[in-house]
Specification:
The chain is α/β, with parallel strands linked by helices. The chain has 2 domains: about 5-155, Leucine Aminopeptidase, subunit E, domain 1, CATH 3.40.220.10; about 185-490, Aminopeptidase (3-Layer(aba) Sandwich), CATH 3.40.630. Helix content is about 35%, strand content about 20%. The protein contains 15 helices and 19 strands. The strands form 4 sheets. The chain has an 8-stranded mixed β-sheet, sandwiched between helices. A hairpin with an 8-residue loop joins strand 3 and strand 4. It starts with a strand and ends with a helix.
Amino acid sequence: MPIQLLAAATDPLIVTDDVLSVPLFAEEPLSGAAAALDRASGGLITKLRESREVTGKLFESTLLFAPQGAAARLVQLAGLGERAKWDAGRAYRAAAAAAKAIAAKPRANVAFAWSDALTPEQRAAAIAGALNGGAGQDLYRAEKKLNPCERLTWLGSVPTDLTEGQILGESIALTRRLVNEPPQDIYPESFAKQAAELAAGLNLSCEIWDETRLERERCGALLAVAKGSSRPPRLVMIRYAGAGPNQPYLALVGKGVTFDSGGLSLKTPEGMLTMKCDMAGAATVLGAVSAIARLKLPVNILMLAGLVENMPGPAAYKLGDVLHARSGKTIEIHNTDAEGRLVLADVLDVALTHGAERIVDLATLTGACVVALGTDVAGAMSNNPVWQDAVLAAAGAAGEPVWPLPMFPEYDELIQGNVADIKNVGDGRWGGAITAAKFLEQFVGEKPWVHLDIAGPAFADKPKPWLDGGASGIYVRTLVELARQTMNDER
């Protein structure tokens, strides 16, 4: 059930919610709600800081029975860390961490008195974080580990902050839920159905290509990956024309492998356990187009998701097969577990032929990117430095970490085929994230394109202070910010 989000200009000392969250920066004089609470309580927060029981360290959460002078049942002192390091990403994570700590027990009504500490952009990100921090991946547990509140009141917020924060928060929650759902519930047809329902609710144009249409469109690479599964593939294409029909389209393309067994190049049980998350790219672009449409941004978006299961069934594609991609390129298969790039090869070509002027694709594509950058940072690879800089700037404004990897021409040699034009993996282990991007580059023509390998940040194997284990919903806010920047560039 969605959290009811309210704004209030009420004095924080008189709110009667179950928990009042009050922010504290580290090594900084008390201000705003914290200063008011300190005065009303006879210097309680000052004493706690002097004794180092409370420091304001980032993600610190101290719950107290509300002292005399505060009407809430409990007060949370939430650490924000150093103000100099504060940005929208930290606002999201700090508020999510505070909400997660509160959600450790059922608390129906929660108020955040954070507005004075944040800029408007940070307030929207923090509201989105507060809406997500208390929601876990335990969708089917009888006894929940986290208990999201029923009503969240954001004190001192203006309507625009509240609206944007709610839209961002709910769009991130959509992405997280789709990824966290088990693969027997989220598969190509069911994902496509949910995407179509979302598009209809937002009055957006939506096309669903079934296997007959995919065959007619010559999507041989995508169809080959799907052959080993009893679940038929789908391609979803949603258009949002916020800038009008004569303006260029930004394509947001997502890899949607709803379960990845590795195919005949079978993964180990440990490697397969979390492979429901291999559709996180598709879930992210769906969450992003939902947010962009609900925010009514004056930009044109073409959202595309290629949806398959990669299974080792009787008709599964094999090592040594040669695939004919939609673009006309031929691909020799050296590893059936390098399937995401095959799906994207056809979907990127669809984007080109349906009017995309600039492209960003998101994919949980390679373990090699996780080896290179760790689990918290996405890799960015591009054919256009100016467009890559724009995407990196959007990620920086959102406070979501992305780092560029090189795309030197020498890497092209590693994917040259002997039987076909190209092969679907490089030579050996080296540069695996880059050779995967080099493969994708073959299918974008001259259009400015950025590939984001989100294999590390999209899914957390273990809980973090601001996030239960499972889907993170990261990069929805980056794509919204990119749409804003694109909108401004085109004016």
